[in-house]
Write a structure and sequence with these properties.
The complex is a heterodimer of chains A (280) and B (303). Chain A is mainly alpha-helical and 280 residues long. Chain A has 12 helices and no strands. The longest helix of chain A is centred in the middle third of the chain and has 34 residues. The chains are: A mainly alpha (280), B alpha/beta (303).
Chain lengths: 280, 303
């Protein structure tokens, strides 16, 4: 990354951090797992294994598994909504407020601006994921883990083998990375739409339309032929990172699918943005 | 003198509408150029093409000697611009906005020097005392001054300003005019787009007039404001003056007379020799308004 690009990325990150909306969104993302943890702790009623959000049944036994479970809770809907809103705002928000033209005549290169925006969306997603995992770890340790038997039970993998703390740490770390990267397909579409319209809302909703379509098609047998190409198809594959040994197949496929979306959609965003008239 | 802005056959089509047709601008370095025209005449589209925001359908543009848009990034650091109103991030202070914009494509100098420069321009436009108040709470005039400050941060050689005094009160307008004249005296080329004839007349040495996408006038203000060949008089005894000048008096009202036929000195001498006291005598000049109205209507009739 050249110095000019680094400077621009730093500016984009400062803008992201200075925006109250960023932190409100992240706080709301963190709130849902906390709510679930409180309910679990109060009732001690875990979903039956295999039912309910992935992984959740295991956390009653050990609170340190809760960060991964919490990510499982926000992955299907909440996190992609937040990411689509931020990515949809990337270019369209600047266009709507009129600041886009002043950035471009400064001059900030269009390709460079798009790249910096993509990095800032990635940074937002990662921050949100880390924040959710951190709150979940605190709530998990404080509220959960006192299994009905009363004795503290060591964490185990989904396969049943015991987990050391080191194991738990790197596996949770990988889950955080995987979840972050899983959001990039939706982010790339919202970013593309963000270069096509001057309305941040329209761009975010377009990103969500992809999410909904994909979720519907994944569950539809008639869509079997395209299922493996859908962006949400491998979103829950992070559970495989808690198997012993780790089952990499779906994780790899999931990353590949996301990479495909990112390359194609940001390529289209670049082609459009660098040749477009800025009339906002 | 070299050209600060030069375009040839600059044309922009949006779908089926031709917004700008064959515009050939020539702004010399050091000019104070007034870019006039009613709303919707293609002024803003032209300004956007100069800055590479809108890509032309046809035509060539050079800005400070660089080809637009190909070579534009090289010269834009030397250009300050205010395009179609100011814009800023509402939740940040004016100071934070300028710092962000400056850091997005940092110019030469250390961070400390650049921050000092931000303070300096805030002082220049009179916003230094506003402090940490977010731009959201700024008045229209304050936003406008912040936009000017943003254009000035880099000490530009060329200032491209779209309606620079929009939303300012009379003192504010005066202050901006003084500032622009001062910058111009320091060698900055000004390209000021406006629909206010009086502003351009006061400020500019050269004008271009847009009408329906075409550049219909481009000339020095001095040349446009040529004498009309009439003399404006104020005399003590209008009846006596009329008697002396006869049919050459073509208009007037009370003590004021409009007389056909220059020079002024000749008319005055005639009256004085006839014993008519002359209080005022001046050669009538066309106003910029006359010129602009005449040319823009002419184009309207051609179509």
């Amino acid at each position: 990354m050249s110095g000019a690009t680094a400077a621009l990325v730093a500016v984009e990150l400062r803008k992201l951090a200075a925006r109250p909306r960023t932190w409100v969104t992240i706080a709301m993302l963190c709130l849902l797992p906390v709510l679930v943890a409180v309910l679990l702790a109060v009732t001690d009623v875990a979903p039956r294994p295999g039912a309910g959000p992935a992984f959740l049944s295991a956390v009653l036994a050990n609170g340190e598994l809760y960060p991964a479970a919490a990510l499982g809770i926000v992955v299907p809907v909440f996190l992609p909504i937040a990411v689509a809103v931020v990515a949809g705002d990337a270019i369209a928000g600047e266009a709507a407020s009129g600041t886009l033209r002043y950035l471009l005549v400064r001059p900030v290169g269009r390709t460079r601006l798009l790249a910096a925006k993509l990095v800032s969306v990635l940074a937002f997603t990662l921050t949100a994921v880390v924040a959710v995992a951190a709150t979940a770890w605190v709530t998990g340790v404080l509220l959960l883990g006192d299994a009905p038997a009363g004795a503290s039970v060591a964490a185990t993998t989904v396969s049943g083998s015991p987990l050391t703390t080191t194991d738990l740490l790197w596996r949770t770390g990988l889950v955080m990375l995987y979840v972050t990267l899983s959001m990039m397909g939706v982010a790339a579409l919202a970013l593309l739409l963000s270069t096509l319209t001057d309305s941040p809302l329209a761009a975010a909703l377009g990103g969500l339309a992809l999410l909904v379509t994909s979720t519907v098609l994944v569950a539809l047998d008639a869509a079997e032929a395209v299922r493996d190409l859908l962006p949400t198809r491998y979103w829950l594959a992070w559970v495989d990172l808690f198997r012993d040994p780790v089952l990499w197949t779906d994780v790899q496929r999931g990353l590949l699918v996301q990479a495909g979306y990112v390359v194609v959609l940001t390529g289209a965003a670049w082609a459009n943005f660098t040749t477009r008239d800025i009339t906002s | 003198m070299s050209a600060a802005i030069r375009t040839e056959g600059l044309t922009k089509r949006f779908g089926r509408v031709e917004a700008v047709t064959d515009v050939a601008l020539e702004v010399r370095e050091g000019d104070r150029y007034g870019f006039l025209g009613p709303n919707g005449s293609g002024k803003t589209t032209t300004v956007r093409m100069l800055l590479g925001l809108v890509l032309p359908t046809r035509g060539r543009t050079q800005l400070l000697g660089a080809d637009v848009p190909g070579d534009l990034a090289r010269v834009l650091p030397a250009v300050g611009a205010l395009v179609e109103g100011p814009a800023a991030y509402g939740h940040l202070s004016g100071r934070a906005n300028l710092a962000l914009l400056d850091d997005a494509a940092p110019g030469p100098g250390s961070r400390r020097e650049r921050r000092a420069r931000v303070e300096e321009v805030l002082e220049v436009v009179g916003l230094a005392q506003v402090g940490r108040r977010p731009v959201r709470g700024y008045s229209l005039g304050m936003r406008q001054r912040l936009g000017l400050a943003a254009a000035l941060v880099r000490r530009p050689r060329l200032l491209v300003l779209d309606e620079p005094t929009n939303g300012l009160d009379p003192q504010g307008i005066r202050r901006v005019h003084d500032l622009l004249l001062e910058l111009s005296a320091g060698g900055t080329t000004l390209f000021v787009s406006s629909h206010l004839l009086a502003e351009v007349e006061q400020l500019c040495t050269r004008v271009g007039v847009m009408d329906r996408g075409c550049l219909v006038v481009q000339d020095d203000v001095a040349a446009l404001r040529a004498p009309t060949g009439r003399v404006l008089l104020a005399v003590g005894d209008p009846a006596a003056a009329r008697a002396v000048l006869g049919r050459r008096v073509t208009g007037g009202d009370g003590a004021r007379l409009v007389v056909e036929g220059a020079p002024v000195a000749g008319v005055v001498r005639e009256l004085v020799e006839a014993g008519v006291a002359v209080d005022e005598a001046v050669a009538e000049r066309r106003t910029l308004e006359d010129v602009v109205l005449a040319r823009t209507t002419a184009v309207g009739e051609e179509r």
